[in-house]
């Protein structure tokens, strides 16, 4: 019985230490690298801006350098999306339609990290081109 109680206490303490997520700094713009494979791009950056009241992400974007996708190459490619993307409890799971799926967690009011599944939708001369680049880790900071 004592062992069961000890296991329960340890589990409760571990859950308490995980706690809820940290809320981001209102109005902050987070920027940082996406750790993308060299076969997809030479480098990539994620950026997103928190609304002034701190309740939503009002814009999100990615920039890729020397991107390679389905026989297409580009020197620099930037894709962004505006809107009111919700997050809660310090976690985010958003799906800007032209970028893909961004998941993560605010680890402090000015730091966040997670994964991004890059499924870009690009408008080129009146046609939409899809560019599937896979899932990659990212980290971002705000001043």
Write a brief structural summary.
With 143 residues, the protein is mainly beta. The chain has a single domain (21-141), classed as Beta Barrel (Lipocalin).
Question: Could you characterize what this model shows?
Answer:
With 143 residues, the protein is mainly β. It has one domain (21-141): Lipocalin, CATH 2.40.128. Helices cover 12% and strands 61% of the residues. It is built from 1 helix and 8 strands. It has an 8-stranded antiparallel β-barrel with strand order 1-2-3-4-5-6-7-8. A hairpin with a 5-residue loop joins strand 2 and strand 3 (56-69). Residues 4-19 have low confidence and may be disordered.
Protein topology:
Layout: H1 2-18, E1 29-34, E2 43-50, E3 56-69, E4 72-88, E5 91-94, E6 100-108, E7 111-124, E8 127-141
Antiparallel strand pairs: 1-2, 1-8, 2-3, 3-4, 4-5, 5-6, 6-7, 7-8
């Amino acid at each position: 019985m004592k062992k069961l109680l000890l296991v329960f206490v340890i589990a409760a303490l571990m859950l308490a230490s995980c706690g809820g997520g940290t809320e981001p700094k209102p109005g902050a713009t987070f920027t940082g690298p996406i750790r993308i494979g060299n076969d997809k791009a030479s480098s990539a950056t994620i950026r997103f801006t928190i609304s002034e009241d701190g309740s939503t992400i009002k814009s999100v974007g990615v920039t890729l350098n020397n991107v390679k996708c389905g026989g297409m190459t580009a020197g620099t490619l930037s894709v962004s999306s505006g809107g009111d993307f919700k997050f809660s409890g310090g976690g985010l799971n958003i799906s800007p339609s032209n970028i893909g799926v961004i998941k993560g967690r605010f680890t402090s009011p000015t730091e966040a990290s997670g994964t991004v599944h890059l499924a870009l939708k690009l408008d080129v001369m009146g046609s939409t081109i899809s560019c599937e680049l896979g899932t990659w880790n990212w980290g971002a900071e705000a001043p």
